[in-house]
Specification:
Structural class: alpha/beta
Oligomer: single chain
Helix content: 25-40%
Strand content: 15-25%
Number of strands: 9
Shape: globular
Order of helices and strands: EHEHEHEEHEHHHHEEHHEH
Distance between the termini: 46 Å
Largest sheet: 9 strands, mixed
Radius of gyration: 18 Å
Number of helices: 11
């Protein structure tokens, strides 16, 4: 099997999820067409982990019509959290590459092809992260330096009009200089969990996400652990659109989960305050 994909959902916006699945299907069809020109077959599987929804398998199949991807829905386990959901999906999968994907992402049709082509030309790379745009076409700076507590507070809680006074600090944290152009960035310290394309053996060697994080910071943790076993590359020719919002915009429950996960992250990797 060339590629496996896992998506974890919890009462998703149905239209957003449909767009994600439809774009995934288009990208897989594009990948299949190019691979078939070499005389090879594309075999792919999607494991959709349902932590809670009222959707049926028919909903998923309609969005992925004619994409020739095998769809397996894992449900009935309750809401086990984001990282643990992906860990359930990877169990028993035998593939060359595994894509961790959010349900609020639109993939460019050539994104998977370009990422796999990059892997084929860089055998030392174990994880590819893409150029990420928002729904208005603006670059999202989701590669990060190691955070301080001050960085997180400024980015998440300070009113927008005041952020200009801390622009240089936040720009450093969000790697604006490195991500401003269209060059490959080798070994960014922390990358986003909304689209992580791994060599599957690397993802399994890391035992996937740390299940102690229910939501938030699981991608920070996994990024840092990945550097211990392989290299990471930010590849701007691989493009996606990400519709996700910040925790602070989602209410007190998400702020509380964000703070709890941040506490676990800093306890494990070291506190930096300022």
């Amino acid at each position: 099997m060339l590629i496996s994909i896992s998506i974890v959902i919890y009462w998703p916006q149905k239209q957003r999820l449909y767009e994600t699945l439809r774009s995934l299907g288009v990208a897989l069809k594009f990948l299949k067409a190019l691979i078939s020109e070499t005389g090879n077959q594309l075999c792919s599987i999607l494991r959709l982990v349902d932590n809670g929804s009222d959707l049926s398998k028919r909903d998923y199949c309609e969005a992925l019509a004619n994409s020739d991807v095998e769809i397996i829905v894992l449900s009935g386990h309750g809401n086990v959290g984001y990282g643990q959901g992906h860990n359930l999906a990877i169990a028993g999968v035998q593939s060359q590459y595994h894509l961790v994907l959010n349900p609020d992402v639109r993939i460019d049709k050539n994104a998977l092809w370009r990422a796999i082509h990059f892997f084929n030309n860089h055998v030392d790379i174990g994880l590819v992260t893409p150029l990420i745009l928002d729904d208005e076409g603006n670059l999202q700076h989701l590669c990060r330096q190691y955070p301080t507590v001050a960085d997180l507070l400024l980015r998440g809680f300070i009113p927008e009009p005041l952020k200009k006074h801390f622009y240089s600090r936040l720009a450093r944290y969000e790697m604006h200089d490195a991500l401003g152009g269209y060059n490959i960035v080798w070994d960014p310290l922390i990358v986003s969990g909304c689209f992580m394309l791994f060599r599957t053996d690397v993802f399994k060697k890391l035992h996937g996400f740390d299940s102690r994080y229910f939501l938030y910071f699981e991608d920070y943790d996994l990024s840092l652990r990945t550097h211990a076993v392989t290299r990471i590359a930010y590849v701007p020719s691989v493009r996606i659109v990400h519709y996700g919002g910040r925790a602070t915009r989602k209410g007190f429950k998400h702020i509380r989960m964000f703070a709890l996960s941040a506490f676990k992250f800093f306890n494990r990797f070291g506190w930096k305050w300022l």
